[in-house]
């Protein structure tokens, strides 16, 4: 019988201050990082806190730092990230840690609202449904943005967020860009104003970590460039 | 960085780009015949054109650099609010004084 293979896993324990705790976990075929975390909680230490829901890459709940890189843990295979039989799992960067691997997502979602990524209706529920041309350029621009699962991986990856806590971040700005391009949105000026303040889109240095790490391969940097372009255009328009 | 600062930095960059190219082109052209410092000063001193050329460049570069360093101070040194703005205005004033002093030095009669 072949010898059971083990991996050593360092897991963050504590809140803002704490330390990594090491666990030996049995290696399995087709094992995800989330499986490893679940195994530790079920068989090694039931006090370990972490967050997950769907386990199939749709809900955006289980993002964590794996070897210092933000990842959706339910769709990250262990053999992709294991280095010399070891890996390190920590809570998402740039967010307050509640306990162990669970972060407080409030700042992330508050910024979605602050970026005015809200629907401003042009019609009421009594009006007929407006026909949208799927090949329209603005609609095509939205296609990528609406695949966002709100996992906060881009927010954790962003060095500008790390250096400037006011910065709205890639996900919120991408949402604002999607709503801005929506022909059914009635208040585009509110969006441009919301992304032009102290924490607005102009803080982005186009380093592109958001696009590199997005698990759905979206490109928030592109959306942010769109917002920069539109705000700059609008800057002159409003003065004439 | 707000939209106003972003636009001020981009517009000053647009102003600087052709001025830098002209500066380099004139330098290459001027030294072809082996001009001395005295001969160069003979052409720049009393010239309103050169005063405006380099004066515009100094103003543009001072604004551009002050905004850029403001961002660095904010993100790397954690400066915020009044302190950050005071530092940016200080950098702007310093660059303007140093730059305009140099422009005055080569264009005043």
TrEMBL record, chain A:
Residues 7-93 form the 2Fe-2S ferredoxin-type domain. PANTHER family: SUCCINATE DEHYDROGENASE [UBIQUINONE] IRON-SULFUR SUBUNIT, MITOCHONDRIAL (PTHR11921:SF29), SUCCINATE DEHYDROGENASE IRON-SULFUR PROTEIN (PTHR11921). It catalyses: a quinone + succinate = fumarate + a quinol. SUPFAM superfamilies: 2Fe-2S ferredoxin-like, alpha-helical ferredoxin. Its EC number is 1.3.5.1. It comes from the Bacteria. InterPro entries: 2Fe-2S_ferredoxin-like_sf (IPR036010), 2Fe-2S_ferredoxin-type (IPR001041), 2Fe2S_fd_BS (IPR006058), 4Fe4S_Fe-S-bd (IPR017896), Beta-grasp_dom_sf (IPR012675), Helical_ferredxn (IPR009051), SDH/FRD_Iron-Sulfur (IPR050573), Succ_DH/fum_Rdtase_Fe-S (IPR004489). Pathway: Carbohydrate metabolism; tricarboxylic acid cycle; fumarate from succinate (bacterial route): step 1/1. Binds 1 [3Fe-4S] cluster. Binds 1 [2Fe-2S] cluster. It comes from Litoreibacter ascidiaceicola. This is Succinate dehydrogenase iron-sulfur subunit. Belongs to the succinate dehydrogenase/fumarate reductase iron-sulfur protein family. Part of an enzyme complex containing four subunits: a flavoprotein, an iron-sulfur, cytochrome b-556, and a hydrophobic anchor protein. Transmembrane segments: none annotated.
Automatic annotation (TrEMBL), chain B:
Keywords: Heme, Iron, Membrane, Metal-binding, Transmembrane, Transmembrane helix. Its cofactor is heme. InterPro entries: SQR/QFR_C/D (IPR034804), SuccDH_FuR_B_TM-su (IPR000701). It comes from the Bacteria. GO terms for molecular function: metal ion binding. The keyword Ligase does not apply. One of its GO terms (cellular component) is membrane. It is found in: Membrane. Gene3D superfamilies: Fumarate reductase/succinate dehydrogenase, transmembrane subunit. Pfam families: Sdh_cyt. The chain crosses the membrane at residues 12-31, 51-72, 84-104. Membrane-anchoring subunit of succinate dehydrogenase (SDH). This is Fumarate reductase subunit C. It comes from Litoreibacter ascidiaceicola.
């Amino acid at each position: 019988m072949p010898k059971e293979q083990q991996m050593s896993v360092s897991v963050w324990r504590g809140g803002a201050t704490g330390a990594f705790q090491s666990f030996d976990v049995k290696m399995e075929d087709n094992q995800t990082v989330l499986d490893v975390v679940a195994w530790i909680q079920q068989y090694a230490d039931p006090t370990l806190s972490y967050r997950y829901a769907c386990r199939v890459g749709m809900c955006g709940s289980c993002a964590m730092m794996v070897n210092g890189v933000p990842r959706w843990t339910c769709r990250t295979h262990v053999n992709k990230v294991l280095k010399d039989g070891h890996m390190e799992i920590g809570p998402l960067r740039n967010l307050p840690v509640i306990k162990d691997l669970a972060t407080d997502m409030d700042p992330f979602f508050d910024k979605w609202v602050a970026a005015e990524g809200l629907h401003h209706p042009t019609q009421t529920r009594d009006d007929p449904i407006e026909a949208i041309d799927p090949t329209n350029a603005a609609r095509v621009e939205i296609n990528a943005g609406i695949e966002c699962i709100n996992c906060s991986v881009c927010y954790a990856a962003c060095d500008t967020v790390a250096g400037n806590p006011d910065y709205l971040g890639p996900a919120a700005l991408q949402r604002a860009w999607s709503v801005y391009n929506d022909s059914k949105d009635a208040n585009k000026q509110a969006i441009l104003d919301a992304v032009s303040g102290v924490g607005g889109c102009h803080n982005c240095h186009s380093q592109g970590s958001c696009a590199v790490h997005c698990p759905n391969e979206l490109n928030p940097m592109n959306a942010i460039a769109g917002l920069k372009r539109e705000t700059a255009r609008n800057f002159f328009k409003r003065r004439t | 960085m707000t939209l106003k600062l972003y636009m001020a930095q981009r517009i000053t960059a647009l102003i600087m780009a052709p001025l830098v190219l002209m500066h380099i082109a004139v330098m290459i052209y001027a030294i072809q015949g082996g001009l001395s410092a005295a001969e160069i000063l003979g052409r720049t001193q009393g010239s309103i054109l050169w005063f405006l050329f380099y004066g515009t460049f100094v103003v543009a570069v001072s604004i551009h650099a002050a905004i850029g360093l403001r961002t660095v101070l904010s993100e790397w040194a954690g400066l915020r609010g009044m302190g950050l703005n005071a530092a940016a205005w200080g950098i702007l004033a310093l660059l303007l004084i140093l730059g305009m002093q140099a422009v005055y030095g080569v264009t005043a009669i």
